[in-house]
Amino acid sequence: MNALPTEGLTQKILGYRLGEDRFGLPAETVLRIIRAVEVTPVPGFPACAMGVINVQGQVMPVISMRRKFNLPDKPVRLSDRFIIAKAGARSVVLVADEVENLFELTPGTIAESSGILPANQQFRGVAKLSDGLLLIHDLASLLSLDEGELIDSTLSSTDTRTNPA
């Protein structure tokens, strides 16, 4: 799990929403944000993966954060945003209902997740904002080893014709 910033340093976190729930991604993991496009389903993908899209010639898995967090599923809308980010060694597309702000947080505003969510390795901290809390992802542990291997093996053995983003 990635460490939180050391004392005196600020950390930039991109905030996003899934319904009323708020989450954050370390800005250094975010490559870009695009409008939602049609997702091509891929048979054999893990349950958290909706399919793939083509981003400038690169086929990327689309991960439903709602499924990862056991939130009610919903179809992708054109108003949704796709956050392209680095999850460990691979690039993934995360589906968000809305992208909020880029927050600059000091260590005093972030509580480490180990004391709050000890069994959940997907989060590295909880940010205390003036208008609520923001769960901060640890993208390196977004996909389990099995999920990552299944996505990689399925993509390498499947002809994935996709719509360019």
In summary, what is this structure?
The protein contains 2 helices and 11 strands. The protein is mostly beta strands.
Give the biggest beta sheet: 6 strands, mixed
Strand elements, count:
11
**Rounded average pLDDT:** 83
Second rung of CATH, namely the architecture? Beta Barrel
Task: Please write the CATH class name.
Answer: Mainly Beta
**Poorly predicted ranges:** 1-6
Give the total of domains: 1
Element order: H for helix, E for strand: EEEEEHEEEEEEH
- Helical residue percent? 10-25%
CATH homologous superfamily placement: CheA-289, Domain 4
Chart the SSEs and their pairings.
Layout: E1 11-18, E2 21-26, E3 30-35, E4 49-55, E5 58-63, H1 65-68, E6 81-87, E7 90-96, E8 98-105, E9 110-112, E10 123-129, E11 132-137, H2 145-157
Parallel strand pairs: 2-11, 5-7
Antiparallel strand pairs: 1-2, 1-8, 3-6, 4-5, 6-7, 9-10, 10-11
Characterization of this structure:
- The chain has 165 residues and is mainly β.
- It has one domain (11-157): OB fold (Dihydrolipoamide Acetyltransferase, E2P).
- It has 2 helices and 11 strands.
- It has helices at residues 65-68, 145-157, and strands at 11-18, 21-26, 30-35, 49-55, 58-63, 81-87, 90-96, 98-105, 110-112, 123-129, 132-137.
- The longest helix has 13 residues, at 145-157.
- It is globular, with a radius of gyration of 16 Å.
- Mean pLDDT is 83; it is low at 1-6.
Question: What are the salient characteristics of this protein?
Answer:
OB fold (Dihydrolipoamide Acetyltransferase, E2P); 11 strands; 10% helix; mainly beta; 165 residues; five-stranded mixed beta sheet
